[in-house]
Amino acid sequence: MLTISSALETIENLSNRPLHSTGAWQPYAILTHCAQSVECSMLGYPIQQPEIYKATVGKLAFTLFSALGSMQHPLDEPIPGAPELEEHGNLKKALARLKKAYIDFDNYTDSLAPHFTYGDLSKQDYIRAHVMHLNNHLEEIREYSA
């Protein structure tokens, strides 16, 4: 399910497990990156792809991911212009930040910022995008089972 409730349940399940990454980023960086993405949808992404890219490649990618209910993207690629990710940190704080980002997004009523690749998204589309993004990154977390 691609809902905020399902994302919050997943985050809660992660909080009681030892987390290890099979990818380039450690769990702290993964969780922080996912929180940044949700936060940027409300505050604005620091760097945008060109409008023609968002209207063509970005729109096609989101449409495909949305139809599949999952996404695949480079899992070691930071959000362009976002603060640099630290590899290690307090996992409980990273999980709390991610949880807060989803709750803040759920309660958010102002205009949403355009996604840096997909362009303008509705709130429902953003929810789908954020949960698919989280799920894709969690593919690199060991000892995690959905």
Residue share in β-strands = under 5%
Number of domains as seen in the coordinates: 1
Helix content: 40-55%
Number of helices: 5
- Major sheet: 2 strands, antiparallel
Nearest-integer average pLDDT: 96
* Structural class estimated from helices and strands: mainly alpha
Shape: globular
Tell me what you see in this structure:
By secondary structure, this protein is mostly helical. 54% of the residues lie in helices and 3% in strands. Strands 1-2 form a two-stranded antiparallel ribbon. The mean pLDDT is 96.
Q: What is the fold's blueprint, element by element?
A:
Elements: H1 4-14, E1 20-21, H2 27-43, H3 51-68, H4 91-107, H5 123-138, E2 141-142
Antiparallel strand pairs: 1-2
Helix pairs in contact: 1-4, 2-4, 2-5
